[in-house]
Write a structure and sequence with these properties.
about 475 residues, 22 strands, single chain, 7-stranded mixed β-sheet, alpha/beta, Urease, subunit C, domain 1, TIM Barrel, 2 domains
Length: about 475
């Protein structure tokens, strides 16, 4: 962090927070001054206090737009980069084309590869303008150190569960329940959460995350929710994320995943339902009730929506506009590779419009809010996800002179629908510059990527030993084109 204030002068455009309307507004010809990790001035140069007007200009903003750093509410950095190139067309036909149960265990990143997976994912997030992430991972050695090193604000969500899943035939899923019901893994996760909360950097925080609704006992779900309430922390679980899970929960309990969570008393304003796609009125999971959406609304439970990972499998949330109009807070997450959240803003918009057959179904503002102020609300934060005087200096500078941003009548639309992360110029977290001109300043992105290539080769080299049928990589993931011999 700079010892003196940082002055960004003459921004052609800024997306500032307007307290009177409780929303973002465009503010052309803006100066920003950053001091002590906070924005101490945001407004026209003519209104700069004398003490700041005398400062030298650190950044000439004539071709730049400042906007709030984006908030990614659902990601798996320690594992997902390992799957690049393999899961794009891979799913189990007998399990409704989910890759969760048969293929993820086969290609899963191990302890050796997780640090590089995380650094690759963290870097991709930074390069796409993300400044705050929710990292849902099983605890691994060095996790807090890597999160601190990244420069991001990282909400650590160490996942725990009562049972492991597997399929032996490709069309049914079996659950192996631990003797202690997952208590020890929850205790270890809570230790990690408490360590994150106490981290000296001030950029780490914690979230309570029972991994999946179908792998957690009712006791562990209720106990984890009580732990979240005691600590005043958000609580998130994967639920209504697959047809297999929907059918399993209705078989066990005679009610949908959302209804079962409600019956346990774990839905509230601190609750985030990871995905919440397969509700009781989804065409893929027809059920005799049609109450799930109303339950989420009545409990003020939020949804973490990740468009890419489900579109890859041929499924969609039905749909973003409907959930939002019902009053549900929806944050956006990347979940899978690539960890470039601007892709998810664009895809979320298009999929919502396709389903409602109108461009009015989902607006640019809707998805931008979801990735900023609304996403922040899911974490219990009313300071991040917005640029305002007195708030944290978590901001993104966008290059308005980039050819893919021009011409630009509306720069946020141009960023989301045309330029994507190619126009991201610089990123600051708590006033510290962490990205400059397409280069991550906090981590060795290129080195981590190079090592990950070797680690992926090592893991896929033993795929046949883990696959239930002993299949090779070429059989599981046929190449796009045959190789000429």
């Amino acid at each position: 962090m700079s010892a003196r204030p940082i002055r960004i002068s003459g921004l052609r455009q800024a997306v500032l927070w307007d307290e009177s309307s409780a929303g973002h507004v465009y503010a052309p010809d803006t100066d920003l001054v950053i001091e002590g990790g906070k924005i101490v001035f945001a407004g026209p140069a003519s209104e700069l206090p004398d003490m700041y007007a005398a400062l030298p200009v650190d950044v000439d903003g004539r071709d730049l737009m400042a906007m709030p750093g984006l908030v990614d509410v659902h990601s798996h950095p320690a594992t997902e980069p390992m799957s690049r190139g393999m899961f794009d067309e891979l799913g189990s036909p007998g399990l409704f084309y989910s890759s969760l149960y048969e293929y993820m265990p086969v290609f899963r990143a191990d302890a050796t590869s997780k640090p590089d997976c995380a650094r690759v994912a963290y870097s991709e997030m930074l390069l796409s303008g993300v400044t705050t992430i929710v990292d849902l991972s099983t605890p691994w050695a060095g996790w807090l150190d890597a999160a601190t090193e990244s420069g991001l604000r990282v909400c650590l969500g160490p996942m725990f569960r009562s049972a492991a899943w597997r399929t032996t035939n490709g069309y049914t899923v079996d659950y192996t329940w631990s003797e202690d019901g997952g208590q020890r893994s929850m205790d270890e996760a809570l230790e990690t959460v408490d360590a994150a909360q106490a981290d000296a950097s001030g950029r780490l925080s914690g979230m309570i995350v029972p991994a999946q609704i179908d792998t957690c006992s009712p006791e562990i779900l209720k106990a984890s929710f009580a732990a979240a309430e005691k600590r005043g922390l958000p609580w998130q679980t994967h639920a209504a994320q697959s047809i297999v899970e929907f059918q399993e929960i209705t078989r066990r309990h005679g009610m949908t995943p959302v209804q079962w969570l409600d019956s346990l008393g774990v839905l509230s304003s601190r609750s985030i339902v990871g995905h919440a796609i397969f509700l009781d009125d989804h065409p893929s999971t027809p059920w005799h009730t049609k109450r799930d959406l109303d339950i989420l609304v009545s409990r003020d439970a939020a949804v973490a929506h990740c468009a890419t990972v489900f579109a890859r499998r041929g499924y969609v949330l039905r749909d973003f506009g409907r959930y939002k109009r019902a009053g549900i807070r929806i944050g956006l997450g990347t979940d899978t590779y690539p960890h470039t959240i601007l892709d998810d803003l664009r895809l979320t918009t298009y999929l919502g419009r396709v389903q409602e057959q109108t461009p009015e179904a989902v607006s640019t503002r809707d998805v931008f809010d979801a990735a900023t102020c609304v996403g922040a609300s899911l974490l219990g934060r009313d300071d991040i996800g917005r640029l305002k005087t007195g708030g944290p200096a978590d901001l993104v500078l966008v290059d308005l002179s980039h050819p893919m941003m021009r011409p630009s009548i509306d720069p946020v639309r141009s960023l989301v629908f045309s330029a994507d992360d190619r126009a991201i110029h610089s990123v600051y977290v708590a006033g510290r510059k962490v990205v400059e001109k397409g280069r991550v300043l906090t981590m060795d992105y290129e080195g981590a990527t190079s090592r990950l290539v070797e680690e992926q080769a090592r893991i896929v080299g033993s795929v046949a030993q883990r696959d239930r049928l002993g299949r090779s990589l070429e059989t599981l993931v046929p190449p796009t084109f045959p190789t000429r011999r």
